[in-house]
Structures are given as structure tokens and as C-alpha cells.
Specification:
- The chain has a five-stranded mixed sheet.
- The two termini are about 20 Å apart.
- It is of the alpha+beta class and about 240 residues long.
Length: about 240
């Protein structure tokens, strides 16, 4: 179906938890240990967490493009709860990605409100994954889907997060060609995953999301801390995620 990659940098506890979740969901995956201060790309330059994260995502994308045998890849981070139905939903997501000619789809991200109830007109609905009914054999294995429906939206620039996203191999090549090591040296650009990877191309998001950030985020900035906690509390539903 897809190649699945997970970035897990220097946190054995989170790494162990996400592996157990993938195993329980019977997903095939690759764990990437990330980019540390001793990586050659940080020789003679300051180590930045945002650059380490970006290099980590780009390394996974490069591996997917060069070695993956699937047309789509899923990339995620290790501090997420994953929807129990994701394996059954992936084939339908791929169908809609092809139908809508999408480069990327966010499956886990940061918004501190419920999109359907927000009334915001900068989320344009462009598709629907499915409408579940008890008599529809295609979705007989699905359990506890919120509102029995998942919708696909275009999204504004203020949606952040690379908790989980799917991209096409064509878009992977575009990212590899654009966000190079030389690009990262330019002090006039932002080299950060959710400012770049999720913002280019024909982008979309799936709502409700299939990966929700854990509610144990730590941040020295109180506003950021509250934002991450609120995002988790609003979108995490017990019984729908592990």
C-alpha cells in the first residue's frame, strides 16, 4: 500500500511506544533515528532543533524516493496516538489522492478547534473519504469513526505540524530537489518541516485526523505549551486511537 517512516530522535521511551502502536495495528514501518549534532551537515554551523527535524524528514523522504517501491509514502513523528482504522483507510486515501491529483495530505497536524464546526471559510472542502453505513461491506472492519465520515480540505498557511502526512513519489522528488543542504545554509529562508514540506504543492488535510499528538508536550513558552495541549485534548477520542 504505502511505505511508512517514523522519525524518532534520541527518545527511547517514545520510540518504544510508537513501535508497539505500529505492531498492534499490523503496519509495516521504518524507524529513522534522526540527525544529531555530530552529523556532517552541522560541521562549522550551529545545531538547531528545527534543522535537525527538517533534515530528519528529508532523509526519510530521500530513502522513500530512492528505495521505496510504493507510489505513496507516509511520514510521521514518534509522539502520536494513531487511529485504530488507519490500515483499512489507507487504500481509500490513495484513491482520493489520485482522484484529486494531490501532492500531499496531512493525516496528523495541529489545530486547536474542530474544523467542521469552526465556520472558517479558509478551509475549502474538496473531497470526502467515505460515508460509512452499517450495511456497507467495504467498511465492515472500521470501528468508532467520528461522525461516520472523513472529509478532505484545502488548508490555510496557519495550519502547522508534521505529526503525520502522506506524499506522492513525484512530490518527494520536488522536495528533494528544492530543500537541499545548500538551501539550508541560506539565512534568509526558513528551514523547518511544517514551513516547507507541508506548504508546497497541491496540499490537503484529512479531517478528523488519523494521528493526534500526545498530550505530554513540553515547551518553555507557555502559549506554545497550551496550544499543543489544547490540540490534543480537542482531537483525541478514547477508543478511536491507541
Amino acid at each position: 500500500m504505502v511505505d511508512i517512516y517514523c522519525l524518532s530522535f534520541n527518545n527511547p521511551i517514545r520510540k518504544d511506544k510508537i513501535i508497539k502502536r505500529f505492531e498492534e495495528l499490523q503496519l509495516q514501518y521504518k524507524i529513522y533515528d534522526g540527525v544529531g549534532i555530530n552529523d556532517e551537515r552541522f560541521v562549522d554551523r550551529d545545531f538547531k532543533n528545527s534543522h535537525s527535524c527538517m533534515f530528519g524528514h528529508m532523509d526519510m523522504i530521500l530513502d522513500f524516493y530512492n528505495k521505496g517501491d510504493k507510489e505513496y509514502g507516509i511520514f510521521c513523528e514518534d509522539d502520536i496516538h494513531v487511529n485504530i482504522n488507519i490500515k483499512e483507510l489507507i487504500p481509500e486515501i490513495i484513491i482520493q489522492m489520485n482522484k484529486l491529483e494531490l501532492d500531499s495530505m496531512l493525516l496528523g497536524y495541529l489545530v486547536n478547534f474542530k474544523i467542521r464546526e469552526s465556520g472558517l471559510n479558509d478551509f475549502k472542502k474538496i473531497g470526502e473519504l467515505f460515508t460509512c453505513s452499517p450495511n456497507d461491506e467495504r467498511y465492515s472492519d472500521l470501528k468508532n469513526i467520528s461522525n461516520n465520515k472523513l472529509s478532505i480540505y484545502e488548508f490555510p498557511d496557519y495550519v502547522w505540524g508534521t505529526q503525520m502526512y502522506m506524499i506522492s513519489k513525484k512530490y518527494a522528488k520536488y522536495l528533494i530537489d528544492k530543500y537541499t543542504y545548500e538551501y539550508s545554509l541560506n539565512k534568509n529562508v526558513i528551514f523547518s518541516a511544517d514551513w516547507t514540506i507541508t506548504k508546497d504543492g497541491r496540499r490537503s488535510l484529512l479531517y478528523p485526523m488519523l494521528a493526534v499528538e500526545e498530550n505530554n508536550h513540553t515547551h518553555e513558552h507557555l502559549g506554545q505549551l497550551n496550544f499543543h495541549r489544547t490540540c490534543s485534548e480537542i482531537h483525541y477520542i478514547k477508543g478511536e486511537f491507541i
